Each structure stands twice: as C-alpha cells, then as structure tokens.
Amino acid sequence: MNKNPHVGSSLDDLLEEEGTLEEINLIAAKRVIAWQISKAMEEKKLNKAAMAKEMKTSRSSLDRLLDPNNSSVSLDTIERAARVVGKRIRFELVDAI
C-alpha cells in the first residue's frame, strides 16, 4: 500500500496546501491576457508603437501589459488595450471553495 499523502490528489490541492494556488492562478490569468492581446494585435496588424498610440499610453506601459511575467498592470490599461483591438474584458467573482 502506498503511504504517499499526495497520491490521488490534484495539482490544485498541492498548490493550495503550499499556499501558492492564488498566486499561480493570478500569474496564469495575466499570461492569458498578455497572449490574447498580442494575438489580437497581430490580427489587426498593429505594432507596439501604433498600439500604444491608440491606447494613449507609453510604449513601456504596453510592454508591461504584454510581458506575461509582469503582474503590475492596471485594469484600466487592460481595458484600453482590449478596446483598441475590438475586444472587451469580462471578470467574474466565483465562490471560494
């Protein structure tokens, strides 16, 4: 019989036990947002300079948004980027387990 307490548990269970689940989920969400905006820019044939100009922001602010590892981006910046590429953002609060 296997006495390993993690056999049969999920990765989420392990991350929650370690206290890192929330942080990992936020990092994953930011990476998805950065990827989606980058892909939408490609579809619209917008380079970074044009995108920043349309957003009325700096190129460095756009770089922070598109950096999947940089989580210091405001909701306002995300919303402006989404608007420029013809998208909208949707957030949702869900019950904690």
From TrEMBL:
Gene3D superfamilies documented for this protein: lambda repressor-like DNA-binding domains (1.10.260.40)
Superkingdom of origin organism: Bacteria
Domain HTH cro/C1-type: residue ranges: 37-84
InterPro entries: Cro/C1-type_HTH, Lambda_DNA-bd_dom_sf
Protein name: Helix-turn-helix domain-containing protein
